[in-house]
Amino acid sequence: MQKPPLLPEETLIRVLRIARFDGLGALILGTLFALMAAAAQEVPFAVIGLLAAGAGAVELHGVSLLREGEPRGMRWLIASQPFLLVIIWSYCGLRLMHFEMPPLTDNLSQLAALSADQWGMTVDQYFRTLNTITVAVLAVFALCYQASMTIYYLRRRAPVARALANDTSTDV
């Protein structure tokens, strides 16, 4: 037997909870990355961190609008997802363009040399390949996550609009 669909009010509560968590996560992580990049004097990466924090703020603005009974808050939630995806992909592009060898201790240098030899590469090529693989995994994960969140919000527009039309005072 199939479960009945959630009531619009319950859908609104879940959307607000998830969007708040997601928005705060982007805001906090973006801010932390911006501060770390600024401390390392890496201006492009600091800007990327600030933009990611801004994407979190966009999502939190959507939450605020929904709490005030404004259905247009859903547009802010939806728009924040591709915005953050573009920012993450920009970070990935910068990481590929501005590769830096990690500092190696003697033991790590020997281990890296052995691993690189097994693959028929130099140590520099080995770390560049690891960097490329890591960036590719991040880019694919970001695409999947941000697309899932966008679809989640898109599918809940109508129930949220009904919930807001029924009761404009939402205290979550």
Describe this structure in words.
The protein has helices at about 10-40, 45-65, 75-95, 105-120, 125-155, 155-165. The protein has about 170 residues and is mainly alpha-helical.
**Coarse morphology:** elongated
Number of helices: 6
Low-pLDDT residue spans: none
Mean pLDDT: 92
Q: What radius of gyration results from the CA coordinates? A: 21 Å
End-to-end Cα distance: 31 Å
* Main sheet properties: none
Alpha-beta content class: mainly alpha
Order of helices and strands: HHHHHH
The proportion of strand residues reads under 5%
Helix content: over 70%
Count of β-strands: 0
Furnish the topology, listing elements before pairings:
Blueprint: H1 8-39, H2 43-67, H3 73-97, H4 106-118, H5 123-155, H6 157-166
Helix pairs in contact: 1-2, 1-6, 2-3, 3-5, 4-5
Record keyword descriptors for this entry:
172 residues; mainly alpha; 6 helices; 80% helix
Question: Can you describe this structure in just a few lines?
Answer:
By secondary structure, the chain is mainly α.
